[in-house]
Amino acid sequence: MSNEPSPQALRYIKVISYRLNELPEEEIANKLGFDSPTELYRQVSQDDYPICLVCGTTDVPRSHCSPEREYKRQAGRGMSEAEELPPAEAAAPLFHQALKKLDWAVVDLQNRHEYWHDGRFVAQEVDTGPVLRDGEWIDEATTNIPLGGKQHPADPLTTLIAVYVLAGLPLKPLVEILHRAPETVDFEYLEAHIVGKRTKTGHKPGLRSKAEHLARLVRGAPSPLKSGRDTGEFTEREQNAIWYMRDLEARGFSRSAIVQEMKKRGFSKEDIERFSKFKNLPPPKT
Hints:
This protein is of the alpha+beta class and 286 residues long. Helix content is 45%, strand content 14%. The chain folds into four domains: 69 residues, no CATH class; 92 residues, no CATH class; 38 residues, no CATH class; 41 residues. A three-stranded antiparallel beta sheet has the order 1-2-3, with no helix packed on it. A two-stranded antiparallel ribbon has the order 4-5. α2 packs across α3.
């Protein structure tokens, strides 16, 4: 058995050694065959040695300088400046395009035949109409289009089921129509696949929470998403309460008067203290 360090270990040792000799980061990267310190940090991290991907500090978590870390730190203290997002209405043509595509997909279901066979969903489409065969048109012919045998219903059915569920429509009618043995369905188990469920190690995401994570990334939240404590949420009622507290402050109410007014509305002292931290929450549009 060789006692020689692996190339990965040797690279990490050299990084530490060069730094002890106070070599600049650019020079260290070049000596180790990299065009930039960032490329070096990425490789050391991939070698499974603790290094920050941004600043290169060793013996720290990979998220040491991550945007998500700073984002959570500021948001937890109510420090973050609000940044107005691009208007959601601008994506309306894209959403209409998606809905139109789904509308056509629903029409296509009339030609579909599906089977449950050996643990697979086997599907085909049957189309009846004019067909060109051997150079001649046949006015009325049947064409069978194979869709394969998959572990899930062939699209667009899987997509349509997901959209139906995400739209918040009742699950039972859909199951009663589509399931091959609806009387055997465990609806509690199905719901867990939609909303997710708590486990000993945290939360196992369902379709809804996965869609929320995707929407969060598409809308510009730092990526990748980190596990652990997030920045929290507040309800519509709580947002309205924060606005009301601001209005009372603007009208010259004292702190004690504001507290009394908010308590009348059912908010605790802890709620009021938490609301006070949202200094930069966007006000109502006027």
